[in-house]
Amino acid sequence: MTLNIKYFGLLAEVTNCNNETIKFSNSNVAELLGFLFKKYPELKNKDFQVAQNNEIISKESIISESEIALLPPFSGG
Amino acid sequence: MNRYSRHIILSDIGQEGQNKLLQAKVLVVGAGGLGCPALQYLTAGGIGTIGIIDFDVVEESNLQRQILFGTSTLGINKALAAKKRLEDLNPTITINAIPERLTSKNALEIFKDYDIIVDGTDNFLTRYLINDAAIITNKPVAYGAIYKFEGQVSVFNYQEGPSYRCLFPVPPKEGSVANCSEVGVLGVLPGIIGSMQANEVFKIILEFDTVLSGKLFCYNAKTNQTTTLKINRSDSEFEKVLVRKDHFINYHEDISCHDSIPEILVDDILLKNNITFIDVRELHEQPEINIPNCVKIPLGKLEENLDKINPKNTNIFVCQSGIRSKNAVRLLLKYDKSNCYSLIGGVSALLQQLKIKI
Fold first, then answer.
1. Which of B152, B223, B227 sits opposite A74 (nearest CB)?
2. Which residues in chain B have their CB less than 8 angstroms from residue A9's CB?
3. Is ipTM > 0.90 here?
4. Which residue of chain A has the CA closest to B169?
5. Residue-wise pLDDT tens digits, A37-60
6. Residue A47: its chain B contacts at CB < 8 A?
7. What is the pTM of this model?
8. Which helix (H) or strand (E) holds B118?
């Protein structure tokens, strides 16, 4: 399936893009993260949440063809 | 009342709505990039009682975005300086300035006097403290946070909605996410995000059914992209906070204050002998430290350059604001290197001291 992935904040600096489309054949969030960590090893040390179709989901959630967002916490004020 | 006539002629507000605003009590934590614009609109719009808590003083580098201050208020406490400016804007409301740091010791006591809390802080420890104290005292939080060109806005702990911990359950490791003084921020961005926080405060008080609860609004000032993400409430995140209610003061001290990384104030450096400064910023970062006993080792390269740290010297680690330097000292402690200190206040504190000495 095709996933459109959005990266926010410092994650966009790690991946060097605000969004990208990837081909992905597995099924859950943990597997997607494994795929992304291989592509961007630096992501592994970052804190972030995952959203699917604009809803924050857990690491066990099933991924379907959708829009994914990786959201880090911001501290600035 | 002429001052609020543009509110009152709105059918969604009217005199009744304006009276609700005049009776409301709002606490703004942090009078910085987010707090300043929020305070300006809360004051102008006639929020009857406004509290401002901030321990910090106005610095020149704040003026690029902290619009309540000017050159005449440099060096003055931000809560006090903001109060003075805001009293000119609207002398008919009550403004309480609290020139202190929000801590686990004073948070519950201060929060109980207000209806709504505005989170305008610049660090995770205080953000989690606000979240937890707001849950215990049952107050909604108008949340905003920024990073370079991007901002997040939400309302937490409102009616049956989620809290900050439902979105990010645990605080990130200290120093893993940089703040504005470390990486910079577009000045107008906190103006936009802080104004949106004020907007949410008005919506809560006016009892609109469109409060930004259960949603995180994300804004990118560079691309104009906006994204709204749905956040679900997790009851267990509330329970985790509520079970610690009776031990709140001690519990938060444990997670936030017992950091054993040695730090040093610039004034105390002179008391030490054989000082070496280690600048752990990236090589391109400004301003440069032009003193002979300073070596440059970016934080990412520190581990491979441990032999350059002589434990016979007093090693003082410096970065932009004192966060990366703390991580550097933490790393060296892991390798049993002693005599290492992180400079509080970073390069600006150091250069200011050097200027005085010259």
1. B152
2. 147-148, 150
3. yes
4. A49
5. 999 999 998 999 999 999 999 888
6. 168, 172-173, 176-177
7. 0.79
8. strand B116-119
